[in-house]
# Entry
Amino acid sequence: MNYDAIMNRLKSLENKKNVQGMARYGINPKNNLGVSIYILRPLAKEIGRNHDLALKLWNSGIHDARLLACFIDDPEKVTGKQMDCWANDFDSWDICDQACTSLFDKNSVAWKKIFEWAEEDKEFVKRGAFSLIAGLSVHDKEANDKKFEQLLPLIKKHSIDERNYVKKAVNWALRNIGKRNLNLNNKAIKTAEQIKKIDSKSAKWIANDAIRELTSDKVKKRFD
# Structure
């Protein structure tokens, strides 16, 4: 399936009602056809991995095409330059999270981008840093505990960011590290306790929510 055929397929699936519903959940309605992710993922499997096609789909500027690009791109062909380029195009939490947890976190460059993006001012680029942590915590089976422990001070530092999409990603990152294994669970809870003492509404929310989940019976049973 070539670029034109895919774009025609996406346009034929346009759902304006879905766009309105997505907007209520903070998904940017601009250049959005409203195609469900449950349609896009099977379509991605039908297309298969294709790096060049993914780049073209991203450059279309169409929200749905960009999501599809995240699903069909080849992680091994993604460069740091591409990551930066796409991150600067992020205009919605869902495109940020799908790029970071369906594609970028399968590339070793992602570890470097965490520290770079965390210091960025743009809300969705910064969110991307912590979405990467959340994704790597689940998908990078080879990383040792030390690599994740080194991210905890970064999480603590940026827990004071009051922007909704940043603080939620910081919280997500902390919780996912804490669900990786018992050692990291203890380290994440300790970090959350430190964050809780910071004079910041965002920090206290992040800490309380993380502690609630990481000390729950459901999470503890994972380590039995």
